[in-house]
Amino acid sequence: MSAVIDPKQGQLAIEERPAAVGVQLSASLAIALKAIRTNSVRSFLTMLGIIIGIGAAIVSVSISQGAGQQLQEQIQAFGTHVLQVRPGSSFFGGRRQGAGTARPLTDRDVEAIAELSDQVEAVSGRIQSNVTLVAGGRNWPTQVQGVGPDFAITQSREVIEGRNFSEGEARSGATVALVGQTVVNELFDGIDPIGTRIRINRTPVTIIGVLEEKGANNFGQDQDDVIWMPLEAVRSRISRGAGSVPDNAGTITIKVWDDLDVLDVQAEIEDLLRLRRNLRPGAEDDFAVFNFAEFIRARNETQALLGFLLAAFSATSLVVGGIGIMNIMLVSVTERTREIGLRRAVGARRRDVLTQFLVEATVLGLIGGIIGMLAGVGGTYLASHLGEFPVLISPWTLAGAVGIAVFIAVFFGYYPARRASRLDPIEALRFE
Amino acid sequence: MDMATEQALVDCVGLSKDYIMGDNVIHALREVHVSIQRGEFVAIMGPSGSGKSTFMNLVGALDTPTAGTLKIAGQDIGRMSSDALARLRNETLGFVFQQFMLLAKTDAIDNVKLPLMYTRMDAAEKDRRARAALERVGLGQRMDHRPSQLSGGQQQRVAIARALVNQPQMILADEPTGALDTVTAAEIMALLEDLNDEGVTIVLVTHEEEIAEHARRIIRFRDGRIIEDSRREAQAA
Fold first, then answer.
1. A39, A262, B24, B113: least buried by Cβ within 10 Å?
2. Consecutive sets of 10 residues in chain B, 237 residues long: mean pLDDT of each?
3. Does B60 lie at the interface with A, CB-CB under 8 angstroms?
4. Burial zone of B121 (CB within 10 Å; 0-12 exposed, 13-18 middle, 19+ buried)
């Protein structure tokens, strides 16, 4: 209760007056928006660090998440239960021997692995050779892959038109072929090529099937730009004399039964091959077995590194942006010293002044964060387009980025706001 | 008799204020005893360094005494927290400054509403009060004008409306006519006299005798002490 003058009666009246409880947030918000609008160019420059930092953060997170999602998709596409065996020392870490020095894998190795039928669903050797296909008057350079009939199973790939080649054709090295959709498009204008004869290095080859479309793999290779033939046909007719042994199977791809632990099977196959290659205990493998999940993970490390570099850049930029906000808030406090003094004189508490400047910092951070978010989304699409890598922009990334912008602004705005709230009202009012 | 009328609005007992400037202690106020009753119109005079500004800062609850007591509306400001002092300034006092101290780029009505920002009150009530205060100082037609669109006298009227808006018991005016020409200054003084006639206590700092003559009581300071305290006429009962 306080005594006040009733102007009409010219005498004292007693009136209930509610306590002053501080500035409503909406009023602080209005002041902050006005202050920012008054110095719009300066405010924008102040926000630039935040904008760049948040933009880079969104791009980096979107790239990492895209990479992670692609990893999952590829593992799903390739199957986590696919193993590959190559001659030569371990692909990861180990000392690599010269390519020619390693003993090749042979058809007999393929057969030995196929005998582990309770563990192995399908197995196939694979050699490849760059060739030019000739059909009618047209040429198409592509890669021919010499494989076994079960190769399609290891690749989870169907023959959608025509048929796969048989065991008999595989053994005899029949000059029959399966082609991918790109080859169909380039050589036959997309028209059904089943039964057509083409030439590969003067060898006539009959197309008996078309492979399911797969699109590009994660190295950007078009998986539909392929032609598959029986391994023996490639060895004896296409790339004759290229292998060091007549039954060279190249690399071996193995599909492990889905209900088994792929690492157990991998160990079993390693034991089998060591035995077959007469390696003494303690001797280093002269072949390498690895599973696709690991392989893809290694490939994705490049993208992860890019994401990390961007994240570091973004963090730096955010700190610089925060310091920028602190700097401009200090300028703003100095410029408005008399205003602060006036507000204190008419009843603002220290915490009201603190709130006002914190709200101003928050608004700077929020606007900067939102502009940065838009820039980040644009930048992400641009990076994805130019760099041709997959990205994933999640709403959580965007919300988190704006949240971080506000946090940075409040963190760095606290010192100037506190300084404003600690000003002595008398000196502030006298400030010139 | 009501307690409120019995008690002096401003009551100083042995009021002292020292400032420390480097190695020196400056005795800005030395054991001042004075009281101001409700409804008074007091002019504070004195050369610079006499202690009048220090006295005004204390009476304005912007500063606290080094020694002695100062009660404003019965509240001992030496014993109050920073928040309580802010509330006292908000609810009990109104300030008018020589340089008007209006917020630029803010129209008259929003300038007047400034003290209400620190009061819990619904927006319609704030608006009603701000309009009433502007009408009271004769600027009912200029509510949406910005300070730059107003003359000096009009700006000071806006500042007076701001001082009035929270229905204070006392208005503290620090050289309110110092930046105005004599004609406009006379108008502002007439407005303050009207407000005083309506019951608002007014304490005014000035160095001009003609301005001080509008007051009913003149307190002169020198060297931190009151050297003269004279009443011009019988106080309105």
1. B24
2. 65 93 90 94 93 94 94 94 94 93 91 92 92 93 93 95 94 92 93 94 93 93 94 58
3. yes
4. middle
pLDDT, residue B89, reads: 95
Whole-angstrom distance, CA of residue B132 vs CA of residue B125: 10
- In terms of residues, how long is chain B? 237
Kindly state whether residues A240 and A136 are assigned to the same domain: yes
The per-residue b/e assignment along B50-61, b for 16 or more CB within 10 angstroms, e otherwise, is bbbbbbbbbbbb
A422 in a structural domain: yes
Going along chain B from its start, the domains and CATH numbers come out as 40-57+81-231 (3.40.50.300)
Q: What pLDDT score was predicted for residue A259?
A: 86
Q: What pTM did the predictor assign?
A: 0.69
A85 within some domain? no
Interface of A with B (CB under 8 A): 2-7, 10-12, 14-15, 17-24, 27, 34, 38, 338-339, 342-352, 425-426, 429
* Closest partner CB to A20 (pick from B38, B95, B120): B120
A60, part of any domain: yes
All residues of chain B having their beta carbon less than 8 Å from the beta carbon of residue A18 are 119-121
Residue B20 CB coordination number (10 Å): 9
The domain in which residue A341 lies consists of: 23-72+299-430
